[in-house]
Amino acid sequence: MKIKFIGAAREVTGSKHIITTNEGKRILLDCGMFQGKGLQTDGMNRNLGFDPATIDYLILSHAHIDHSGLIPYLYKGGFRGSIISTNATRDLCSIMLADSAHIQEVDVQHFNERRVKQGLPTVEPLYSQVDAEASMKLFISLAFDRRFYINDQINVKFTNTGHMLGGAVVNLELLENGKKVHLAYTGDIGRQHNRILHPPTAFPQCDYLITESTYGNRLHPADKEIEDDLLQIVVDTCVKNKGKLIIPSFAIGRTQEIVYVLNNLYNKGKLPKVDVFVDSPLSVNATDIFRMHVDGMNNEVKALLKYDSDPFGFNSLHYVKKLEESKDLNSYDKPCIIISSSGMMEAGRIKHHLANNISNRHNTILIVGYCAPATLGARIQEPGLREISIFGTIHPINARIAKIEAFSGHGDYNEMMTFLSCQDTSQIKKTFLVHGEYETQLFYKNELEKVGFSNIEIPASGDEFDLHE
Length: 469
Prior knowledge:
By secondary structure, the chain is α/β, with parallel strands linked by helices. The protein is 30% helix and 22% strand. The chain folds into two domains: 2-218 and 409-466, 4-Layer Sandwich (Metallo-beta-lactamase, Chain A), CATH 3.60.15.10; 226-407, Rossmann fold (3-Layer(aba) Sandwich).
């Protein structure tokens, strides 16, 4: 059996890892989009590094675009195998991939308008909404903890990671040379105390481990006071400064978590009387999917549902779908909260809200999640930065830039190691660290070695390993 690492290798986006069995079957773990490197990103996404038609199965850890976003491109390139995921991941992909295609189509249209004026040839989007819709027909979705037999040599079981709705460890069992080999791919690891989702659960013992390392050198601050922290920022911005609180947020997971906290504040009578806008059609649709998958929620949410039928809705909350309604927020002259995607600020309606609000000293831009290096979200947080380019226009940064790290959906290195403690390290023959910046991975590798992990590899893109049994 061989494993080749293509994406999320010494970086945090573009997750793609190929397993080739001794029988010649090719299994792709995730098919994520690279994000945050400008024009370089487009080339990285178009050059997969393999022929899509040679892939037999795609097994998906979760629906975030950096793990799923190139599925329609894979289909467009000739992939016709099965896509295996959890039920919630399949439901989320049905809206997220279509949304990704729509964003590309709109962006390319504007890009081509400029190219035509310059006498340059036009370009095509990576894929269309037609490709996204067609790729959904390849999905096979499973409940957690149910073993699915792909064929006589390969079976898979998903166990919960608590990172996002439907997020799972891919537990593969492969028959190689008459022996069973157990490989676990964690995808992204959530936190032990997520405000909405069921906490991560232990996964079966593996022989080979592929695991993330996004926050491999960081510890999150204690999040017991997160409601108070968010409330204080709302009061300072909307009540004292009469300004707007702009929250760039991932449409899936993070937005629902913020709305859930605001809903709790509303139920307690603490939330100031300001309008809250969730300006993202994807967030609106995703919230409906969250309502469908109550089984994925933690006990606190299930208890809340006994007296609050909708933890993602309250009287002053408005979900914005139509573009005209989104544009109207530019001229909305009252204090308010605007939650909009994307979380890394690289695309979507949030860029327009930033452009219209970042120069006003009464406003606050609140960072609530990880932003990959080179993204707009990362640049905006640079200490002492006085101005920023958005849509090619320079904007002075007069708004307050605030941050609440406790909203992060990624576990820190202690939380990740706690999650991995279900494994007997003496039985793991090799561990591969993916989905992290290289310096971060070196730190995390050292921490893992302290608790008994050995034979830890940090693969670069293109590295292939032959696993002998």
